[in-house]
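User: Let's play a game. I give you a shape written as tokens, and you guess the letters that built it. Ready? Here's round one.
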């Protein structure tokens, strides 16, 4: 069966994460979004495992997959998925020698290589690969020239694209031709414009954590879904101080310092991906570009935040009428959507038809969009 999965998010035990990220809240948010399986995030933390244990089996039927993100050599982040908490604890035992302080940080920093992290995951029955692989600062391609440079001979099981990339960015990299791509929210707060803003649709034979891992292990990715890459904070090369965008050649000529204010120029994901291409692009499962419903409503209503009360009222009206946010964005007839809110319905129609103008992000500033509603 087809199952929408969001396998990378975080807990309040990680830095910069909302205290509202609680298991019950995440289960409810996944159900309203249309996500059938979510990662726990931060499963190495003992208190977070205890919080999840009572609702691993839940009335809403959401599959809960134990997941972990760690930082290792050269600040690279790695994502690992497990069939159960026993496997996570065994994984933690292998990482203990790498300096992880699991009681203090949900996303521990380790004195280990990427090879050692992935090998430990494999030894304990898990899957592992690079988190947000193309992203500056903590993506594997920001620190290494190749997957092999980061992981050696230890095979990765998947590659997470990150918010500033879609499947096309990795399609021409030969060492990734047999590696499944996944899309995940990396959510730090539980709002519906965060949870499931990127997800992977898998063909699962069994609706369980083991079934999710088996589908991913066998590469049964039906579709990746996520933001337009231009919406990401690091899509184009830009200044981290003033946000000025520059070409790659301009950045090199300027010595990676902004010609306006001397701030650091950070190489964009798009430029980095192009550097890595060494082959003709290979076919990939479809990638569906979506914008969260709350953000669509905010643009239509002319307000800055998808958390504004007027946005929440309209959002709730759609969810009361239809099953999930994903159904509203992808499946429901536009005529039906217009019946709930004419302008928002037309905006979703524009999104489905690709009538979108994108203003790319860069330097740590999110990109923006406009919907062309004829």
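Assistant: Ready! My guess for every position:
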């Amino acid at each position: 069966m087809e199952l929408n999965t969001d396998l990378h998010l975080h807990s309040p035990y990680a830095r910069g994460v909302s205290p509202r990220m609680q298991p019950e809240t995440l289960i409810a948010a996944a159900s309203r979004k249309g996500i059938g399986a979510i990662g726990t995030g931060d499963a190495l933390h003992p208190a977070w495992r205890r919080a999840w244990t009572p609702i691993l089996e839940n009335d809403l039927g959401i599959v809960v997959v134990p997941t972990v993100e760690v930082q290792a050599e050269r600040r690279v982040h790695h994502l690992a998925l497990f069939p159960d908490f026993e496997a996570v604890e065994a994984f933690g035992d292998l990482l203990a020698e790498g300096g992880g302080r699991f009681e203090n940080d949900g996303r521990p920093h380790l004195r280990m290589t990427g090879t050692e992290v992935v090998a430990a995951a494999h030894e304990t029955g898990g899957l592992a690969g690079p988190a947000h692989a193309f992203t500056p600062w903590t993506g594997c391609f920001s620190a290494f020239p190749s997957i092999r440079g980061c992981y050696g001979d230890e095979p990765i099981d998947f590659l997470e694209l990150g918010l500033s990339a879609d499947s096309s960015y990795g399609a021409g990299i030969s060492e990734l031709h047999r590696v499944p791509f996944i899309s995940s929210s990396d959510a730090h707060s539980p709002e519906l414009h965060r949870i499931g803003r990127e997800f992977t649709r898998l063909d699962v034979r069994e609706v369980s954590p083991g079934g999710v891992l088996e589908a991913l292990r066998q590469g049964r990715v039906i579709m990746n879904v996520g933001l337009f890459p231009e919406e990401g904070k690091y899509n184009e090369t830009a200044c981290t101080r003033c946000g000025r965008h520059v070409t790659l050649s301009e950045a090199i000529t300027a010595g990676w310092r902004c010609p306006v204010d001397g701030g650091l120029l950070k190489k964009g994901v798009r430029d980095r991906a192009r550097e890595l291409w060494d082959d003709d692009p290979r076919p990939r499962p479809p990638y569906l570009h979506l914008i969260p419903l709350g953000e669509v409503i905010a643009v239509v209503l002319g307000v800055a935040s998808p958390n504004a009360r007027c946005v929440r009222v309209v959002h709730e009206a759609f969810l009361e009428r239809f099953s999930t946010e994903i159904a509203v964005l992808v499946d429901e007839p536009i005529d039906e959507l217009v019946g709930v809110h004419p302008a928002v319905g037309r905006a979703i129609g524009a999104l489905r038809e690709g009538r979108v103008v994108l203003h790319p992000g860069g330097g740590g500033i999110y990109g923006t969009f406009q919907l062309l509603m004829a």
